[in-house]
Design a protein that fits this description.
The complex is a heterodimer of chains A (about 525) and B (about 180).
Chain A: H1 3-14, H2 17-35, H3 41-48, H4 57-81, H5 91-139, H6 144-161, H7 166-181, E1 183-184, E2 191-192, H8 206-224, H9 246-268, H10 274-288, H11 301-324, H12 330-340, H13 348-353, H14 355-387, H15 391-410, H16 413-431, H17 437-459, H18 466-469, H19 471-514
Helix pairs in contact in A: 1-14, 2-4, 2-14, 3-4, 3-8, 3-12, 4-5, 4-11, 4-12, 4-14, 5-9, 5-11, 5-14, 6-7, 6-17, 6-19, 7-17, 8-15, 8-16, 9-10, 9-11, 10-11, 10-19, 12-17, 15-16
Chain B: H1 23-44, H2 58-79, H3 100-120, H4 122-136, H5 142-163, H6 171-178
């Protein structure tokens, strides 16, 4: 167990000028795209997939690590400086951060978010370094029924527990599983649901589904009910050198650490990713704060804690992804696909078979964090400019890159047709309140789950008891039951806080209007 | 939501409009139900090779059943009055009604783009896509979208097609540029 020396070797790889440059490019583009309004982390990663088509595996994965962290971080800038939150993980950041910005303390909000993200990301990456090899060692001994059990856990948590409505989440998961079935069956070589169209023989590419749902679907949705008129970006006071006062530091450092402690474990377990973590962190800060009256009116703790939790969860999500091959968010599912397209299968054997690559990736996560803070503090002015891009050109650009990404897979216009069909599906799913993340996860994990299921049953000659016979699988299903109960409890809390928050925001707004 | 409050004379006061029957939501759930049934029927037409314990139809049948079950559950939920939550976003006006004309223009732009790629080259076709979408979304000067689109598309084509070696078609207008790489 000398993961530290392996990590040092990883640093030696990641610090080579070429790879360092790719890490820098990844963080830069990831942040730039993540800052763009209307683009969440999943869309950022999906849209930037084609960027790595031409790179070698190590460079591509280092670039991706940067894009992932950059995209995660970029969203917080948007929520602080624009008046409405984007993805659900930045709702709470938007609440306090936006209020701070309106009070002329936008620079402090951005700074506490950036430094908090850096600290949380670094601590969480240390956690990943310590935890991942142990988990991978253990996971090597897992059989087919055990892996199936893990996949079922992911299905249930992502499909049923993440969204607001269980049937809608499961429906989305089922659509994803169905899309995953299209193509030639890997085990028997039979064609399924190809409708005699030769382009469908190899199945529908995950890139098409991810870009179609997130980029095309989202653009169509925005276009159908666009907010016309000017963009309200809150100006940031010049001179980023005086971003945080001593008082701000004193009030921020504990929320950063608490946010990390909340975010990393929640990211690690398949329980809904970053948004749950941010809400829990916000709740904790509100309870512990000495300045309770400021919450809802621009309390710096309410930015520091949730932002730290958000980034710590982002690193936590990588633990099951790398060691078990199990994506627990849509973003992680797209990253898994990116690995697979280089012939790399994340999972227990990854640490044994390709240590150089894994540790270069982990090292680049540390570097990515440093690059993130180096870029973000001085470049705030540039990100603000990005927020002001006129919306018609912004969405025209998103669609152009989406079509480019689809066409560049095989240089076949059939792929653009599939992209368009999936985009229209994504539009209607958004319009009718059906979450899209379970679809992506179902589509990627479905074929893996089917393989494990059939191999397991083949070995047991069709006896289904084999699926729960191994202690690990039995425990996993047991934990699943506990997770369901726990998540239901968490969701109740989250709804309560959301309600509470809307009330506590509504009050000051009304008060303002009356003045 | 609550029923509209009726005033003393029995007419509905101007409060909220009564909840409409969500036809679109029902149609979507029905379509998914139909997809599930088609998938189930299709599963039985998959060829199963002899001598296989667990063939290629087992999982499709399970998925079809899940699809039918969840679509039915959503359908029942909608009929019992559950409504989709409007998603929030930076550029979304939650009170706006759906602008079908703009949607049709954008879908049309993508279709035109994919038809043009092999005729006039990738960059010009991408510029057409960019221009139509920008115009459909209300850009102030309609021609500016095409100009910006062409510049961005040429940069993409030169970086990815020229330097990184993706084989994007250059088309007749920019064939000379492609010849330089």
């Amino acid at each position: 167990m000398d993961s530290w020396s392996l990590l040092l070797e990883g640093f030696a790889t990641a610090l080579q000028p070429e790879y360092l440059m790719w890490a820098f490019i990844g963080v830069f583009i990831g942040t730039a795209v993540g800052v763009l309004p209307g683009i969440g982390p999943a869309m950022t990663v999906a849209l930037l997939l084609p960027l790595t088509y031409t790179l070698d595996a190590t460079a591509a994965i280092i670039t991706f690590a940067g894009i992932y962290y950059g995209g995660m971080y970029g969203g917080s800038t948007t929520s602080i400086l624009l008046n409405t939150p984007g993805e659900s993980a930045s709702i709470v950041t938007a609440i306090e951060g936006n209020k701070m910005a309106k009070l002329g303390r936008g620079a402090a909000a951005l700074a506490t978010a950036a430094i908090g993200s850096f600290i949380a990301g670094t601590i969480a990456t240390v956690g990943l370094t310590l935890l991942a090899p142990i988990l991978a060692d253990f996971a090597v001994s897992l059989g087919n029924p055990d892996k199936l059990a893990l996949i079922v856990v992911a299905f249930v948590t992502v499909g049923a527990l993440m969204g607001k409505s269980v049937p809608r989440g499961v429906l989305s998961l089922a659509i994803g599983l169905f899309i995953g079935l299209v193509g030639t069956d890997a085990l028997s070589g039979q064609q399924r649901y190809t409708l005699g169209i030769p382009e469908l023989n190899q199945g529908i590419s995950v890139v098409l589904v991810a870009v179609g749902l997130f980029a095309v679907g989202e653009t169509l949705y925005v276009a159908s009910r666009m907010r016309h008129g000017g963009v309200d970006v809150i100006p940031v006071t010049k001179g980023w050198r005086n971003w945080m006062t001593k008082e701000d530091w004193r009030r921020s450092w504990k929320p950063w650490l608490r946010g990390t402690a909340i975010g990393f474990p929640i990211g690690t377990i398949p329980a809904g990713g970053a948004d749950v973590a941010t809400f829990l962190s916000y709740a904790a800060e509100q309870k512990l704060s000495k300045h309770k009256e400021q919450f809802g009116r621009g309390a710096i703790e309410g930015v520091a804690g949730p932002e730290a939790a958000n980034n710590a969860a982002a690193a936590g999500v990588l633990v099951p992804l790398l060691t078990l091959g199990l994506p627990t968010t849509a973003t992680a599912a797209i990253i898994l696909f990116a690995f697979q397209s280089y012939g790399i299968q994340p999972g227990p054997l990854l640490f044994a078979n390709q240590p150089a690559l894994v540790w270069a990736l982990v090292a680049s996560l540390y570097l990515g964090n440093v690059i993130l803070i180096v870029l973000n503090l001085p470049l705030v002015g540039m990100w603000v400019k990005l927020l002001q891009i006129p919306r018609p050109y912004l969405y025209a650009g998103i669609l152009m890159f989406a079509a480019f990404g689809a066409y560049a897979i095989k240089f076949n216009i059939t792929d653009i047709i599939i992209l368009l069909i999936i985009g229209v599906l994504g539009y209607f799913m958004r319009r009718y309140g059906i979450p899209v993340a379970p679809l992506v996860v179902g589509m990627i994990l479905g074929p893996m789950g089917e393989g494990e299921l059939r191999k397991a049953l083949q070995l047991s000659q069709g006896d289904p008891m084999t699926l729960i016979a191994s202690p690990f699988a039995a425990i996993a299903y047991g934990v699943l039951v506990v997770l369901i109960l726990g998540a239901l409890w968490l969701r109740r809390r989250q709804t309560r806080y959301e309600q509470h928050l809307t009330e506590s925001i509504a009050v000051p707004i009304k008060a303002d209007q009356e003045v | 939501m609550t029923a509209p409050i009726t005033g003393a004379n029995g007419r509905a006061e101007e409060t909220r409009p009564a909840p409409r029957v969500p036809i679109g939501e029902l149609v979507f759930a029905l379509l998914m139900l139909a997809l599930g049934i088609l998938a189930l029927v299709g599963a039985f037409s998959i060829h199963v090779p002899v001598g296989i314990q667990v063939g290629p139809t087992v999982f499709p049948i399970a998925v079809s059943v899940l699809l039918i079950g969840s679509a039915a559950a959503v359908l029942i939920g909608v009929l019992r009055g559950e409504r989709a939550e409007v998603e929030e976003g930076e550029d979304i006006d939650p009170d706006a009604s759906t602008d079908w004309v703009t949607l049709a223009k954008i879908v049309g732009a993508i279709v035109v783009h994919l038809l043009l790629i092999e005729l006039i080259g990738w960059a010009p076709a991408a510029a057409v896509l960019f221009g139509i979408v920008a115009w459909a979304l209300g850009a102030k000067r309609w021609w500016l979208g095409f100009v910006i689109g062409l510049v961005v598309a040429l940069v993409v084509q030169i970086v990815f097609g020229g330097f990184l070696g993706l084989s994007l078609p250059w088309g007749p207008a920019f064939g000379w540029l492609g010849g330089m790489f």
